[in-house]
Amino acid sequence: MTSFKAADSKREEFRKYLEKAGVLDALTKVLVTLYEEPEKPNNALDFLQQHMGTTGPESADVEALKLEVTELRQKVEALSEENGELKTKLQQYEPPQEEATE
To answer: Which portions of the sequence form the region Disordered (predicted)?
Structure first.
């Protein structure tokens, strides 16, 4: 009988933890969104994962980082082109270097 009470208290403690952390609210919102979908998705798990992943501030961070990556790639490409042009100009002004003989 006491093992049932211990399990119940652990379960209640865990429920309070989830509630305090906002997990229950987040799950409820996503499940309500799924319930209200006029056309149910073929894969409910994918739906839940997509909507759970986009509900927090992390998604804004991810979008900002994606934008930054795109900008940095463009900058690298521009700098590589400039580097190539500068190497070409440098070769015009420097005589070809011969390998040192030993």
So the answer is: 78-102
